[in-house]
Every structure is written in C-alpha cells, then in structure tokens.
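Step 1: inspect the first sequence and its tokens.
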Amino acid sequence: MIKREETRIVQNSTLLFGHSNNILIQSMCDIKTSKIKEVIKQINACANAGANLMRISVLDEEDANAIKTIRKFVKIPLVADIHFNYKLALISMENGIDKIRINPGNITSEEELKEIIECAKKHNTIIRIGVNSGSLSNDAKGSTEEEKIVDSALKYIRFFEDNGFYKMVISLKSSSPITTYKAYMLFSEKSDYPTHIGVTESGFDEIGIIRSVAGLSPLLIYGIGNTMRISLTKNPLKEIETCKRLLHDLGLFKKYPTIISCPTCGRCAVNNTKDLAEKTLKYCIKHKKYITVAIMGCVVNGVGEGKNADIGLAGGKESFIIFKKGQPVKTVDQNSALEELFKEIDTFNVDENL
C-alpha cells in the first residue's frame, strides 16, 4: 500500500481535504453554468459515475447567481472557477458554493483578495489557490518554471495566512507532465497544505490520458495529492473513469474491477479477445463486481500468466477454458463463453479474495 503524505486537514461542512484521507475525484462541467437544467443533469451524471465534487465555470453574474439553484438539485459539493473578476467570487460564496478556485496570475489586487478572504471566512468556504504555468505573475521568482510556480503559490499562501485564512488547497499545474511533477515535489518540501493534482490542458482522448498519467502516477506513488482531475477535452465522464482506473491500478481505489487481457499473438486461437475483455469490464462495473478477471487468447497466457486472477478465460480451438484461481473449472464453446463467464462472476464469493 502506498504511504500517503500527511498534510494538514482543510475542511468545511461539505468537504475534507488532507492528512492521509482518500483522494477525491473531480471533473468540470463543459456547459455554461447559467444553463441550469443542463448543468444539474451533467453534475448528477458525473456524481453517479464516481465524482466526489464538480467544478463549474463562473464567467458572469448570471453564472454566479445560478449556483443557488444548482446546489439544491445536485448530489455532490461544487467548486466555482473564478478568473479576473473578484466580485464573481463574492457572489458565488453568497450563493452557497462549497469551494472556489482563484488564480494568482489574474487576481492580484490586495484589497480585492482581502474581500474574498473575509467573504470566505463568513461562509466557511474553502479556497483553491490554482497556479498555472501559463498565467504566472511577472514577479514570480526562480530559475526554472517549476520554481516560479511554487514561488507564486507560496506568496499567495503567505498573504492569506497574514490575513487569518488557512482553509486552502493548492494546485501547481503545467501542460508539461515533467514540470507538473517537479512543481508538486518541490511544493511538498516547502508546505503541508493539501494539493489538487492535475496536468492542465493535457489534450483529448489518449493524448490527454497518457500525458496526465505520466505526470500524476509518480506523484501518487510518492503519496502526493488529496484531490485530482485528469483533464480531457470535452469529456467529463471519461475524466472520472480515467481517475478511477489510475487510482485503482495504484491500489488507491478499491471499488473497481481489474481486467487482465493479453495483447494476442500468433498463438491466439480465437478472434474476439478484445471484445470479450471490453464486455467483461462493462459487466463487472455495472454489477459492482470488484474482482480480477483475465481474458486470454491461448492456454499459455491463460491459466499460466493469468493464475493470479480470480476468474479467467483462456482461448483454445473453437473453445475456451474457464479457470478460477489458476485452476481449470470447465471447457465451454466459444459462442457461450461470455455467458458462462458471467455466471462464474455472479457466483464468485468475494471472501475468497481475503
């Protein structure tokens, strides 16, 4: 089990970040917040998929005022994303937002920040100081980009602390996974505030997934990160699913199935290994079967390399062997293989994993 970094605890009535608690998964709505019905629908869909909190953009007063209604009909806490206009942060907090995100690069007035701080104190709102490499202030010090990112965050933290505010979560993002990794590692040496981790503007589909996983995996293995987002262009639900898969593979998220499938080669005697693996994953997710299932194209990879799986299929000539804990259970026709596999999954006793 990965040893989690023990940061300070930051919490209010709806959220808790820090110490060594579970990593909270979040995504962000890709619909303008003033479109209340659509936003509520998307937030609840993401909550059902496993999101612990959702961020919404606040571009204008119409968005900020929509928060009051939205909060009444959603299942999870909300974060308001604020840029440039500090008054939108005030209106969002007055309307009951659970947390706000502000960027040191575009809200710099000390008087405006003090107003945000006093309003956050009044409403018990958590503030994320979200530093991005693309919007660093001109006075950020350091010889490298990651040093400038951390310097900017620390300056903001000191200002907030000097004004009696400590309910902060910090993010230090870059579109480069290496810079992101270095920034969080450096920050962990200098501060004990909980962190929101992510690679910003990572891209779409596999491009964004690979870039994010490259930057976030070493941080998670090192124990860093109290909440996370894998940013993917126009795909909040995929963001949540990818977060769960990454956390699960690192032993940090238990309620998810493990699917093992071979890459296939010339030994493979069946043609539908990928299709079987995809359908098995969907079945296990739908029926909440959090076990390890192996889908293998031949008996070499099957019972041998899949022996640590709870249940598995190994392809043969026009047939499959179903095995359990490395031991063959039955041979089935390839046309009924999936049906027979699902029967075994349904009757598998989870206590056998203990």
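Step 2: inspect the second sequence and its tokens, then contrast the two.
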Amino acid sequence: MSGDALLQTPLHGWHQAHQGRLVDFAGWSMPVQYTSIVEEHHAVRNGVGLFDISHMGRLTFNGQGAESWLESATTNQVSRLAVGQIQYSLMANGGGGLIDDILVYRLPDGFAVVCNASNRVAVVSEFERLRPASQPTLLDRTIDTAMIAVQGPRALETLQTVINVPLDAVKYYHLTMGRLFDQVDTVVSRTGYTGEDGFELIVPADAAVTVWEALLKAGAGAGIRPCGLGARDTLRFEAGMPLYGHELSDVTNPYAAGLGWAVRLEKGEFIGREALRGFKARPGLTRIGLRLDGKRIARQGSLVRHEGADVGLVTSGTFAPTLNQSLAMALVDPSAATLGTRLSVDIRGRDESAEVIKLPFYKRPQVAPSSH
C-alpha cells in the first residue's frame, strides 16, 4: 500500500504533532514510539501508559440470529457469555488454521467483535459468507469510533477520575457502559494485552482527541506516557501473549499455539471443527519459551535446533526490558519442548545456546484488592 493511501486513526494528527514515529502497520499509519520503546515499556510496567489502538477492527452484531451467527464462525462458546462478559476466541478456516484471534463482547443490546487490523477484511468477509437467513445486522464501526487502551498498575486510578462508573467492580474480561467527564459515552472493557491491569475505551471518533488529552492530564501524577506499538509488542511478548502473524497464522492450529482452551469442540457445528478435532489429538508443533544464553536477539523465522537437528522456528524474540534477558517464543517439535531442554537458535548463521523455559516470561505481582 502506498504511503498516501494509509488509513489514519482519529488521533493521527496528535501523534504527528507530538513526535510519534509513524510507520505503516497493517495499512494504517501508526506510532511505533514517541521517546524510546524501553522507556514506554517501563512506564506501563511501573505506572500507566496510553495506547491508540483504533486500528483494530470493531464490528457490532444485532438482531435475530446474531448469537448463532457468531457461534458458527468462532471456536469458543458465545452462548456462555452473560451481558457484560468478554470472551477470547478464534476464527478457524476449514483446515483448522486461523483467520484471526478475536474478542467477543456481550453488550446489553447485542454483540461486538474486536479483531486484528491486518485481518479485518478477512474477518468481515468470513462473517458475510456465513450470514444466516434471519439477516441480523453486522456494522463495521472501525472508522467511526476510536479505541484507546489505558494500561499499567495505575490505570484504574487514572481512568476512575474521569468516568462515572466504579471500575473496581469491572472484573477481568468484563465490560461496562460509562460516561467520560459527563459528556462522552463509552464502552469500557478490562482485558489488556500487556500483562498489566488495564482498560480499553471505545468512543466516537470525533471525541478521541478530547478523551486522549483528558487521560494524559488525569494520569500526569502517575507518570502517564503515550506509548507506541513497539512497547505494546515487547509488553505482550513478556506476558507470553500470541500475536497474529507470529505465533498465530492461517497454517498454525490453536493446539500448537497453546490456545486449545479457546476451542469448544463439544458446542456444535462451527467452521474448522473437524480439522481441529484431529489437531487436538496431534497438534504437530508446540509453542515454547526460550531463554538465550547471550544478549543476541532471535528474530522471527530463526531456525531452532536440538542436538544438531532442525526442530522448529522462532515466532517472536526480543531483549525483554523488564527481565533484562534475550528471550524468544518458538514453535517446535514436541520432542524438544520439555522445560530445561537445551536447544540452539541460528542467529544470522551463528548458533546461540538457549534453554526451554516456562511461559509466560512475566507475570504481574498480585496486589491485594483495595478495601473500598
């Protein structure tokens, strides 16, 4: 896609004016960083960070047959959702590979799906292909809304000052409807993709800049920083969360990726069910964590070897800022996946020793619930 054809979020002008380094990400002009990825990463781990995630697809489903429509296209069980709950799910193709990983929101008046920017067109077209005779509505709300993530141990106190609903009561993977500074209606969810506590706001596109700037002001005492996609990637990586195009793809099955828990084979018919039944018995590869002995970074596609034989490929790797180590995730043959196994990674033609370690690499400290 040529540079002038890139999609822009409602916050694009703000990013440009505040030294956001903009890159082409899945056809969108998105900030990869403002200061440094490491500084932004630490801001989220230790305080609070603000992310523009408006590039992610936002679809709403309403009307008769919406639930069964979602059920037929997704691997998890939509009918288990109560109003206000969110479900991590997958959309599989007929061969059991993945079209996308998604979040399904159960709203008071229907459903919403949040999908990856790179897969939005494929996701919408798959839903259209499966549209039931009852003709429920599917609206793509990606362009007329914005989505902002407030992430970090001080996210709750930052957001609570500007919203009219108690956020303590919103559990993980739940949502509520609220109003920001008595004027902007928002859907607020508590999912996060950083390994920290955090919230996501869906607001009208024309309110995005007002909301963003109000959040920066509200979080000033907590050291809030605007953060780019670079820190979002290092944070999700440390938390062992899969990323489509890395750990997940149209040829990676959910059981190999460690996501078998999001597949409900017993729920009835859905796309990919038979293929997935086979993969449950024999997933083929398996996702592992690796700690490299040195500081060199294992990039996606690097060969992984066990006792001289090729056993798999690195899917993501970086020097993890919180843990101060070179780490990687890889898809490997199950024979090489036992914790403590010594492997080697081919980094630009030179082998680097590594050890299989437990995922996730990072787990946030559990804070005792507040008394109020």
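Step 3: confirm your contrast with the notes below.
Residues 3-54+152-165+180-198+206-238 form a domain with the Gyrase A; domain 2 fold (CATH 3.30.1360.120). The chain has eight helices and 20 strands.
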